[in-house]
Automatic annotation (TrEMBL):
Segments passing through the bilayer: 120-138, 144-169
Domain of life: Bacteria
This protein's name: Rhodanese family protein
Record keywords: Membrane, Transmembrane, Transmembrane helix
SUPFAM superfamilies, A to Z: Rhodanese/Cell cycle control phosphatase
Originating species: Mannheimia bovis
Pfam families: Rhodanese, YgaP-like_TM
Classification via PROSITE patterns: RHODANESE_3
Domain Rhodanese: 15-108
Keyword Transmembrane: yes
Length: 176
């Protein structure tokens, strides 16, 4: 069995008929913004525990993430979760972004911090840009900072350990 992709308009109709939306993003992403009535069950949790109770009782499930990339990559894993022959499962085309671009509303909580990955990208990019400017106009030794940040990002990608993310997690704006 495979999973079909449906548009936001089709998904909205299925939701009105009782379909359950499952957001496979991390909890902090879900808390910041999600489709109203969706259930947050990150992909790792789905793999470990299976479908949430709301979905087990539904004959239609719609999986989504932010842009459709994660759900598309996990398609085979999501198919394996469907143990009922009569249950329809779908992927939301373009994910939450597709939902919003179709004009449908989401539940937002701007008080929630932005995702940690984006915080790391902003911090690393800012440090590299700053070191390039300082290295060009003040002293070339500032280029070392860019090298250090780049090496840290490379290490984080290889090892899965990101010191910058740990540091940023301790910032006051992430203490919600």
């Amino acid at each position: 069995m495979s999973i079909s992709t449906i548009t936001a308009f089709q998904a909205q109709q299925k939701i009105a008929e009782g379909a359950v939306c499952i957001d496979i993003r991390q909890a902090e992403e879900f808390l910041r913004e999600h489709i109203q009535g969706a259930v947050c069950t990150p992909l790792a949790q789905l793999q470990a525990t299976g479908l949430p109770e709301q979905a087990k009782n539904s004959n239609c499930i719609i999986f989504y993430c932010k842009s459709g990339g994660r759900t598309g990559s996990a398609c085979n894993q999501l198919v394996a979760l469907n143990t009922e022959e009569n249950r329809e499962i779908f992927l939301l085309q373009d994910g939450l972004n597709g939902w919003k671009s179709s004009g449908f509303l989401t539940e937002k909580n701007q008080r929630q911090p932005i995702e940690m990955q984006r915080q790391v990208q902003i911090a690393a990019g800012s440090l590299i840009l700053l070191s390039m400017i300082l290295g060009t106009f003040i002293n070339p030794l500032f280029y070392v900072l860019a090298t250090f940040v780049g090496a840290g990002l490379m290490f984080a990608g290889i090892s899965g350990f990101c010191g910058m993310a740990i540091f940023l997690a301790k910032m006051p704006w992430n203490k919600v």
